[in-house]
Amino acid sequence: MRDVAILGIGVTKFGELWDKSLRDLFVEASLAAMDDAKVTKLDMIYAGCMTGGLFNGQEHIGSLMADYLGTGPIPALRVESACASGGSALASAVIAVASGYYDVVLAGGVEKMTDVSGGKATEALGAAADADYELFLGATFPSLYAMMAVAHMHAYGTTRKALTEVSVKNHFHGSKNPKAQYPFEITPEAVLASPMVSEPLHLLDCSPITDGAAAVIVVPLEKVKKDKRAVRITGFGRSTDTIALHQRKDMASIGAVARAAEAAYKMAGKTPKDIHLAEVHDCFTIAEIMSYEALGFCPKGKGGEFVLSGATRLGGRIPVNTSGGLKAKGHPVGATGIAQVCEITSQLRGEAGQRQVKGARTGLTSNMGGSGASAVVHILEVNK
Amino acid sequence: MRDVAILGIGVTKFGELWDKSLRDLFVEASLAAMDDAKVTKLDMIYAGCMTGGLFNGQEHIGSLMADYLGTGPIPALRVESACASGGSALASAVIAVASGYYDVVLAGGVEKMTDVSGGKATEALGAAADADYELFLGATFPSLYAMMAVAHMHAYGTTRKALTEVSVKNHFHGSKNPKAQYPFEITPEAVLASPMVSEPLHLLDCSPITDGAAAVIVVPLEKVKKDKRAVRITGFGRSTDTIALHQRKDMASIGAVARAAEAAYKMAGKTPKDIHLAEVHDCFTIAEIMSYEALGFCPKGKGGEFVLSGATRLGGRIPVNTSGGLKAKGHPVGATGIAQVCEITSQLRGEAGQRQVKGARTGLTSNMGGSGASAVVHILEVNK
Fold it and tell me: Which helix (H) or strand (E) element contains residue B61?
């Protein structure tokens, strides 16, 4: 089993990109990653995409992207784990390179979500839930996360103010990211004044519908030992949970994230205290609060206090979602897990510009699918 | 990199299974494979499924199946490469076990295709083509394969009689497989009398719409060295081609299958002459003829003569599709690649009953996506 590293990254602008198709987006991010890595040939492509079928009437995403990327007839595969498809693509690439079968692997993610309208996007995303027992009965993701928020408030006294602070903080970070869908700050008052989507979640508690793609190039560490811009992947972990929220023992925690983190920490030989910054899955503000707890950044039930303490703001103990997170940067679901890794890679390289976390040497990404039915955690470190 | 083996297999009945859901099918096949392998715990699940989104409104297939399989919160991932999703799931499992990260991995495939009606199945399957430049303009798969058939007839003089023989042969084989969707023989006259779907392809040249699932358990070879029912996976290969048929230089060949086979033969240290039997991707009769050529079973352009010679019938030099193939056994697209492997495993174990190929020690599976835009080939051998 070989150690692996990220050699190049690429991210498109996130947003409502009417003039770019599914394939355009993937190719743009992939070419940027290949340029960054200074590679022209690939051995394999893992393409994360949640639902090209329901958003674009297009499956067979791996072959499509290999074709349009123009790298010749190389093996290519789509991997899907709902909103954790991107992280899953990276984990697949790590295993592929570690195994010795492949040397230069592209892990990418893409989603083109604005090709549908009239509630179809919410329905498509609902396919990440239990379609037969949740979506069919009207439980879309805003309502599922709203129930989780209520459960967390009930169990731990988490406040509305804490939810608001997640959104305000991530927009503050996103204001420093020119590729973010919403690169501007918002006020707490704006969050509370935004329409109620599913109580207690307002519109500005929810990540948006986004087009975008991201890609990274994964190689054996031994080939880039002296490359200071290479970033080591020292741990990964994956887990699942019941697909339906109502079948979990505890709706106020996300067990799959905790288990994935435990595995990743163990593989990397790290603890939460070793992590300098993280990108976590804030599809809804409550998800970020629950992620802090699942990842061990703060004790269980203390996620709300943790964000209000300023610990996860730029300049705090462990800045979280310096990219703007899913909330401000945008959430093209299949791309999100890879975009998280691109942000951490930029930070560990010291290339994050206005949002640079000083002295960042170890970062974590936490990518989640559905209401927490799948989770992928990666730990990245600077190349010594 | 560790050598790997298949320890257990499971296949559901294929057909129009109105009383079984997507999850029911996957779980049934998986439990059968686990029973066959005598394992109760899994480290990882790779679930092949082409389009749970368009057929069932359900994505997040990996987590769903891990949940309903009841093996605890283990990592699970869906892989998709259109009709090659099953073969891709197995290749992913092989890499995962070979890497050393996982010891007991389930590779499964499933498709529940009869939940839609009114042309929706053909439209869903069309998502495996270039949705923007083929399906949008009306080119569904029967018409794409019809064009390939015409190109092959034009280039090599392939006859209508040869196409017919593929279907008749596979139904003859399928008549010996109680799990086949259509376990009965058909006559050449019936093929020609069946409705024309897209000239020159009649209805009985086309694989059907099918519900079904299949699963295999993959383990390190070192753990099953003395188990005669274990079957070694000694080679695999994957490749892609242009997603759109019209962008290929040659419409009368399937280059991705040829490249995947070349890689698999090389890894296994085999040539086509070493193969005792094969399961190939006869989604349409012409596809089986082109597969013979791509896999090196006969010279280019001679596939029609090859099937007419009887070489690929039970008792011939290299029986192909003893299971009944996609034509008679059925083609639940995400399951097909795994079902092929289950058939070869049964044969190499000497457990194929009425359709047993005597002395079979080395078998091959060839699973293809779209009009040949992706291909996965595996070579399996008896455990010495």
Answer: helix B61-69
Q: Look at residue B118 and tell me whether its pLDDT is greater than 90.
A: no
Q: What is the mean pLDDT of chain B?
A: 97
Mean pLDDT of the region B181-195 = 98
Helix (H, G, I), strand (E, B) or coil at A206: strand
The lowest-confidence range among B23-27, B136-140, B336-340 is B136-140
Contact A373 B131 (CB under 8 A): no
Backbone angles phi, psi at A218, to 5 degrees: -110, 130
Average pLDDT for B372-384: 96
Superfamily of domain B121-208+233-382: Thiolase/Chalcone synthase (3.40.47.10)
Q: Is B331 a catalytic site residue? A: yes
What phi and psi values does residue B232 have, to the nearest 5 degrees? -80, 140
| pLDDT higher than threshold 80 for residue B384 | no
The answer to whether A372 and A257 have CB atoms below 8 angstroms apart is yes
Residues of B in contact with A92 (CB under 8 A): 77, 92
Distance CA B352, CA B343 (A): 8
Any idea where the domains of chain B sit in the sequence?
4-118+210-224, 121-208+233-382
pLDDT in tens, A333-351: 999 999 999 999 999 999 9
Q: What gap in Å lies between CA B223 and CA B244, rounded to an integer?
A: 43
Q: Which residues of A touch B370 (CB under 8 A)?
A: 60, 63
Contacts of A54 in chain B (CB under 8 A): 53-54, 57, 59
A267 in contact with chain B, both atoms CB, cutoff 8 A: no
CA-CA-CA-CA torsion sign (A134, A138, A140, A144) = negative
Residues of chain A with pLDDT under 70: none
* Among the listed residues B249, B5, B248, B241, the one whose alpha carbon sits nearest the alpha carbon of residue B105: B5
What is the reported pLDDT for A9?
Answer: 98
Q: Which of B77, B103, B137 to mutate to test the interface with A (most CBs of A within 10 A)?
A: B77
Question: What is the CATH class of A4-118+210-224?
Answer: alpha beta
Question: Tokens for A189?
Answer: 């008052």
In angstroms, what CA-CA distances link A167 with A207, A328, B171?
9, 8, 61
Note whether A4-118+210-224 and A121-208+233-382 share their fold: yes
- The conformation of residue B199, written as its DSSP 8-state character, comes to T
pLDDT at B373: 98
Q: For residue A79, count CB atoms less than 10 angstroms from its CB and return exposed for 0-12, middle for 13-18, buried for 19 or more.
A: buried
pLDDT at A84: 98
pLDDT of residue B50: 97
What is the Cα Rg of chain B in Å?
19
| 8 Å CB contact of B82 and A63 | yes
Active site residue B298: no
Under 8 Å CB-to-CB from A328, ≥6 apart: which residues? Answer: A170, A171, A173, A174, A175, A177, A180, A181, A182, A183
pLDDT tens, residue by residue, B327-348? 999 999 999 999 999 999 999 9
